[in-house]
Write a structure and sequence with these properties.
CATH class of the largest domain: Alpha Beta
Largest sheet: 9 strands, antiparallel
Order of helices and strands: HEEEHEEEHHEEEHEEEHEEEEHE
Strand content: 25-35%
Distance between the termini: 19 Å
Radius of gyration: 20 Å
Number of domains: 2
Shape: globular
CATH topology of the largest domain: D-amino Acid Aminotransferase, Chain A, domain 2
Bound molecules: pyridoxal-5'-phosphate, 2-OXO-4-methylpentanoic acid
CATH architecture of the largest domain: Alpha-Beta Barrel
Length: 345
């Protein structure tokens, strides 16, 4: 009854991108070389061994996807199989037990269904964020992989990551911090990458920017990515996005590349030098949490140089945004088979 009252009072339209308690989460343990049966929990806490490898050696990876309430009332997941694949790559990268795709799908759908009343209504701009988490829960003191793992999924209703929503934001190029190294872990979704980004991100926020734009760690010449989102630029009817070993392969970016082709743009994935920023007509950051966040201006913190793209979202970013949201919410035909309706809610 209490939670029912709680959801009835949610101001869906002003939800921040933040933790919001829901009723249930789902957990699975990997033990003796196999995954056990998923268990439903109503606790927000996890009992964890004090020597768990997640706590000491960062054996931890996570994912982020969303459940969308469509215009037709149906609830859709967007390309969840890609999240499952990326979580397996993350697990492989830091030697954790891999979660099979079928188990991943079963657990995320269960977590969404159990918390169906927290799925924001269509048209509010909010969605149900789904957070799968995999970590070494078994003890080790030497630096080596755990023998036991926990895979769990919780959900939270959220608004867009950048509070401005689909409004251009200022971002800041940093030269004095790296998020990830070319042969490090930037290409997988492990917690350590995010720890490394916190100090420059916090400074950027204090300096009035929505996010940091990281450069390649080796030469400091090329754009890597924008905090928790990939970067793209638009010029000459072309969608251009960085190629780099140290950025996370974004499922949103991959989808935008396809949508860009569908609407008649050329697509280039290649190195993008800082100098090229002044040639773009539009720029943006994209990701599950960020959706598309158009960029108003980019300031290079090392020399004060400013690249401006305007206070209003450009026509290409607007079109990409509308197509992407439309597919996710069932207003645009899903010609690539990217969405799956969760039956029974
Ligand atoms: N880059 C980083 C570092 C991220 O954390 C995310 C979010 O997952 C993205 C990019 C966007 O990826 P996706 O579109 O798969 O959410
Ligand atoms: C996402 O876009 O899903 C993310 O995981 C970004 C973030 C909140 C780390």
């Amino acid at each position: 009854m209490l939670t029912q009252e709680k959801t009835m009072n949610i101001e869906w339209g002003t939800l921040p991108f933040a933790y919001f308690p829901t009723d249930f989460n789902v957990r699975v343990t990997y033990k003796n070389g196999k995954w056990l049966e998923p268990e439903v929990s109503d606790s927000e806490y996890i009992p964890i061994h004090m020597a768990a490898t997640a706590l000491h050696y960062g054996q931890e990876a996570f994912e982020g996807l969303k459940a969308y309430r469509g215009i037709d009332g149906k609830v859709r997941l967007f390309r969840w199989q890609e999240n499952a694949k990326r979580m397996r790559r993350s697990a492989e990268g830091i030697m954790m037990a891999e979660v099979p795709e079928e188990l991943f799908g079963e657990v995320i759908k269960k977590a969404v269904k159990l918390n169906a009343k927290y799925i924001p209504p269509y048209g509010t701009g909010a969605t149900l964020y789904v957070r799968p988490l995999l970590f070494g829960s078994g003890p080790q003191v030497g630096v080596k992989p755990a023998m036991e793992y926990t895979f769990m999924v919780f959900v939270s209703p959220v608004g867009p990551y950048f509070k401005e929503g689909f409004k251009p934001v200022p971002i800041e190029i940093v030269h004095d911090y790296d998020r990830a190294a070319p042969l490090g872990t930037g290409h997988i979704k492990v917690g350590g990458n995010y720890a490394a980004s916190m100090r420059p991100a916090d400074r950027a926020h204090k300096e009035g920017f929505a996010s940091v734009l990281f450069l390649d760690a080796l030469e400091k010449k090329y754009i890597d990515e924008a905090g928790p989102a990939n970067f793209y630029g638009i010029k000459d009817n072309t969608y251009i996005t960085p190629q780099s070993k140290s950025i996370l392969p974004s499922i949103t970016n991959m989808s935008l590349e396809q949508i860009a082709k569908d609407i008649g743009l050329k697509v280039e994935r290649r190195q993008v030098s800082v100098d090229e920023l002044e040639t773009f007509e539009e720029a943006g950051a994209c990701g599950t949490a960020a959706i598309i966040s158009p960029i108003k201006k980019i300031v290079d913190r090392s020399n004060g140089k400013v690249y401006e793209y305007g206070d209003v979202a450009g026509p290409v970013s607007t079109k990409l945004y509308e197509q992407l949201r439309g597919i996710q919410e069932g207003t645009v035909e899903d010609t690539h088979g990217w969405t799956e309706v969760i039956e029974g809610i």
